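Re: [help] complex structure
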Amino acid sequence: MMEELGITAYKCKKCGRVHYPFHDRCLSCKSREFETIKPEGAAKLLAYTQIFNLPWGFDVRFLIIGVVEFKNGVKAMGQIKADSLDKLKTGMKMKATWEPIRVQAGEDIYGLKLASIK
Amino acid sequence: MRDVAIIGVGMIPFGRRDEDTLLDMLAYASLKALDDAGLGDKSVDCVYVANMGAGILQHQTSVASALVDRLSLIPAAADAVENGPASGASAIKNGLLAVASGYYDTALVAGGEKMREVVGWKATDFVATMTHPEAEYPYGITLPGMAGMFTRLYMEKYGVTREQLLAIAIKNQKMGALNPYAHVEMVITKEGIYDSPDAVVNNPVAADPLHLYDMCPVSDGAAAVVLCPLELAKKIAPKSPVLIAGFGQATDTHTLQERDDPTDLKAVTLASQQAFEMAKLKPKDIDVAELHDAFTILEIAESEHAGFFKKGEGGKAAEKGETSIGGKLPINLSGGLKARGHPVGATGVAQIVDIVFQLRHELDKKRQAKNAKNGFTINFGGFGNNIVAFVLRRVE
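Output below.
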């Protein structure tokens, strides 16, 4: 059982396309009727990078960021918990959690954190 | 719709311009364009100003109103155009349509950005504000980060190599060193950035697999063009007019993750096809191009998506020198964003200015594409979610 992730995705009731983030009309069929769904199942790493020149709000030397696809079709960006890219590979399975990703105005902002499954 | 020509262009050297305000830069480039068009003491009907970040970076809004006042162009109609890094080409498109429609006869289009007065992380954060505010921005993703993810996928799918990316960086900085308007006027070598122990220090990873020298610099700068109907241009233009033969614009999903194939820059393909169709030309008819190489991978990917090379062949062509001066299709003889610099609001206008220089055959032979008649540009907004392409033609 995966712990609750704070991502709400939107599945088109007409054609089944999964959207995240929200769109007012379906990207495929333009329908406005959606079922809200949560990411489910294992996450597959679709893309990743390590960035060193960070924007405002991060007091770390680098960030490793990736995009995953969950088994139910939800695709989302997250921060990857790793010291380097050495053990990452496109297509690998990742474990997703909902944790602080940055601090704004003294408060933790939560988001998707990803870690490779050993 | 009337044919529309560019009758004047102006640009100021890009780089770090501590002494100038944003309005100074826009005014200097505009005055050069007006003088070039022979309208130095005259007015224009409308003004479009491309700028992405004055509201954030300078705490200044309504830059178009400010520019017409500064240039004493009142009561010309004036609008600011913000379309991320594609603001420049979007503003030119607006000027083109305003004149083509017959509503206005003369348009001044200026683009400018002042990015160097803030520290690096603020500039990086400012550019990152174009990412999705819920699904991307909070994670700390930057545009170089998006490019890094895209590059890895493109390498995996099409076999693009580090050497091919290096070929773009080396070519464009070589051309930038010949361009008096370029921000970076430094020739680099493969040894210096790849093949030596020093390369690790000189060229560190910035957004893996992209390194520092795969990135364009953060720049200040401005550029401007003057448009009028072709028939009027033939009567009043002091220099050879350049016809805007075609344009195209297309959009794609805000986030890269929602594209069926994140390596497929559909908006680049669509915008390019529209521009070629309107111009009644094909990619093989183009003599010189300015592509949006904010990252080296983009020059390769855009050259393929625009139809100049098959997928997977653009990097090989660059490596073989086919996109260098004297090659089959010279790309970014200005140095591109990589060397000319990337003041985001100015870039799309600067690309057009550089192609006009080429089509008027005004450049030193080291940078002039031989017998150039047709030019092409791509201005790349967001991470490929808003693309504007132009085809320009020399008027004999």
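Chain B touches chain A through 36 residues (CB under 8 Å).
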